[in-house]
């Protein structure tokens, strides 16, 4: 189970690397809920993140997140400053990400701050800095009087708790709407990496089809293309079932044959060289090739050496790619 999950997460991060240009160390914006949850469930911030993202991480705390953490703390009467909370790691472990949202650098709402860091420009909708978001469902705070006998206090605490829940889910749904934002989430005592959001997935499909337009437009194009294709197919289902078989079946074969013929001309002589019996699968072609070779035997012999070299090269490449494929899996 554990191995299966880490394999899944490795694959996910690989997709972020290929599609959105992520690279290690992954920059992770952690929010106040995440830090509280990590502390509550006695997780180790960096090792836990590295296990989840399957690579080196560089966690960061925005100035506005820090302000939100400190604002929730009781005041130390001696210093008149809030107590430093236990769930706030030292800056050596968790450096500050300086952010400026206004002229006098006053901190803004944490969720607004994080979304603006993840997506500085709502026109382009790009996570330019390749941030990962690490967040969590809110946990009850020490001063949350959810169990209070005082109905008034309890209602106020419940309202505040509900508001934190709503803001937490707004942050996640906002982050999901930006293509290319990995989201780490702590729910109860489990740290998970969310699957690609729909906008991320759309961009990924666009890139894999060789459309290198970036951002949302490319995704929308892909979707509308798919939709158009589907509509066309639904109009006449008969041609849909027959069409691809007729069109796709014979064409690739007829494309391959001339290639294999050219390469296999030395093959009929090359019965001496034992390394190539597999390629004579297209045996029918050899007959044709025979006719050609008999007409020009001398030139073919000269070419044979070159061909054997190139063939050896070409057979080596797939063999290597097969093995590397095995390792990656
Ligand atoms: Zn900020």
From TrEMBL:
Biased composition (Basic and acidic residues): 144-169, 264-281
Segments crossing the lipid bilayer: none
Keyword Nucleus: yes
InterPro entries per record: Fcf1/UTP23 (IPR006984), UTP23_sensor (IPR057776)
Annotated Gene Ontology cellular component terms: small-subunit processome
Compositionally biased spans, kind Basic residues: 298-307
Limits of the UTP23 sensor motif region domain: 242-260
Keywords annotated in UniProt: Nucleus
Keyword Zinc carried by entry: no
Matches recorded under Pfam families: Fcf1 (PF04900), UTP23_sensor (PF24779)
Region described as Disordered: spans on this chain: 144-173, 227-329
Descriptive protein name: rRNA processing protein
Organism: Talaromyces proteolyticus
């Amino acid at each position: 189970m554990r191995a299966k999950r880490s394999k899944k997460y490795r694959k996910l991060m690989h997709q972020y690397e290929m599609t959105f240009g992520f690279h290690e160390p992954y920059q992770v914006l952690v929010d106040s809920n995440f830090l509280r949850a990590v502390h509550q469930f006695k997780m180790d911030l960096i090792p836990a993140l590295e296990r989840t993202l399957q690579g080196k991480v560089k966690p960061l705390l925005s100035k506005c997140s820090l302000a939100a953490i400190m604002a929730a703390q009781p005041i130390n009467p001696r210093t008149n400053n809030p107590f430093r909370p236990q769930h706030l790691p030292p800056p050596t472990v968790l450096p500050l990400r300086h952010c400026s949202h206004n002229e006098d650098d006053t901190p803004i709402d944490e969720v607004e701050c994080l979304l603006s860091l993840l997506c500085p420009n709502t026109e382009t909708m790009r996570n330019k800095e390749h941030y990962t978001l690490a967040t969590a469902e809110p946990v009850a705070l020490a001063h949350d009087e959810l169990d209070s006998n005082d109905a008034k206090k309890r209602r106020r605490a419940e309202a505040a708790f509900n508001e934190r829940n709503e803001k937490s889910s707004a942050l996640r749904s906002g982050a999901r709407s930006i293509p290319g934002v990995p989201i780490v989430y702590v729910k109860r005592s489990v740290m998970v990496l969310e699957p690609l959001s729909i906008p991320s997935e759309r961009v990924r499909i666009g890139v894999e089809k060789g459309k290198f337009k970036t951002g949302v437009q490319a995704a929308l194009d892909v979707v509308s293309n798919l939709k158009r294709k589907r509509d066309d197919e639904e109009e006449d289902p008969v041609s849909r079932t027959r069409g691809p078989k007729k069109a796709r079946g014979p064409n690739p074969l007829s494309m391959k044959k001339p290639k294999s013929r050219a390469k296999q001309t030395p093959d009929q002589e090359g019965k001496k060289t034992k390394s190539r019996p597999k390629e004579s699968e297209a045996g029918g072609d050899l007959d044709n090739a025979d006719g050609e070779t008999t007409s020009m035997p001398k030139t073919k012999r000269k070419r044979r050496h070159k061909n054997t070299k190139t063939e050896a090269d070409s057979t080596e490449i797939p063999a290597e790619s097969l093995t590397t494929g095995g390792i990656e899996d």
